[in-house]
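Researcher: Following up on the earlier apo prediction. This time include the ligand. It's flavin-adenine dinucleotide, with the SMILES given after the sequence.
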Amino acid sequence: MSVCYALPPVRGKLTHGAPLAPLVWFKSGGAAEWLFEPADVDDLSNFLFALDPAVPVMGLGLGSNMIVRDGGVPGVVVRLGKVFASVEPVDSTTLRCGGGASGILVSSKARDAGIGGVEFLRSIPGTVGGFVRMNGGAYGRETKDVLVDCEVVLRTGERRTLSAADLGYTYRHSELPSGAIVISATFRGHVDAPAAIQIEMDRIAAAREESQPLRSKTGGSTFKNPEGHKAWALIDAAGCRGLRRGDAQVSEKHCNFLLNLGNAASADIEALGEEVRAKVMAQSGVALEWEIQRVGVDK
Ligand SMILES: Cc1cc2nc3c(=O)[nH]c(=O)nc-3n(C[C@H](O)[C@H](O)[C@H](O)COP(=O)(O)OP(=O)(O)OC[C@H]3O[C@@H](n4cnc5c(N)ncnc54)[C@H](O)[C@@H]3O)c2cc1C
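Model: Understood. Below is the ligand-bound prediction.
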């Protein structure tokens, strides 16, 4: 994995062999061959334009839906810093949000501006780039319901605006072009009173606390809900609640969550997920599909 090819000059931070485990929720896995934290959009765009097209590029948010395999991620991983995390109201119902802004920041700024409808982002511990890519959703709403458009830097370095229709959204899936980095998004809600928005945010936060292992090393929902089923119920029925492999465990609290209890390797976590899939298939005949993005190579 450690081919040391020449990379274009940058104004931001470019690190060779950067460990990714500290940057993802599971706290496991290998290093990025290169980790790039661009100084601004031009820095990102110029870098991608000049980069050998054969080098793979991947965006990283808060790593809240990701297993980084133990052999690390070849090519360049792009992480957006503070300069990409601004959230500004555009008018009485829309907000322009940087690709690196968190869900809590977006929903809090929307509340302050009296814009309702994006409270659900309060409960998803990711960034705008991750929400756009994953069609993140909760409590009956998804990113596609509020997204007007987003600005991306394509793998070629070209900047482009994509509408929600361009992204071909389905459940927890988008057709975001491979290697594209989401640098901002515009969300539309509706006019509402900040106090009412706060009540909804509090309700969502309390519901989360009750149902999910929020302070654990995890990757959120492991599998997509199959048509007509709840993944957690299939996993429970297959007897997998609490199932362990080394330090990897199926959560007792919410069995569509996998946990790293301490020092699990990503290989343990992924193999546990595959074991769950096999048991669910044997018990109910349903093929669970991974929601968690598994990236990089095995050791
Ligand atoms: C406790 C917990 C609860 C969760 N609850 C929910 C929930 O209710 N609903 C839900 O939908 N999800 C949930 N998740 C999963 C996760 O938070 C979402 O999928 C979120 O959208 C991921 O955002 P992220 O920025 O952390 O992306 P990452 O996990 O870093 O990346 C996910 C994918 O997005 C891509 N990506 C990230 N940033 C960019 C960017 N700027 N440009 C291009 N691609 C990018 C990555 O390459 C990867 O393919 C939960 C996770 C946890 C840990």
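Model: Residues 25, 58-66, 80, 99, 123-127, 129-131, 133-134, 136-138, 181-182, 212, 214, 218-221, 293 surround flavin-adenine dinucleotide (CB under 6 Å).
Researcher: Noted. I'll compare it with the apo version next.
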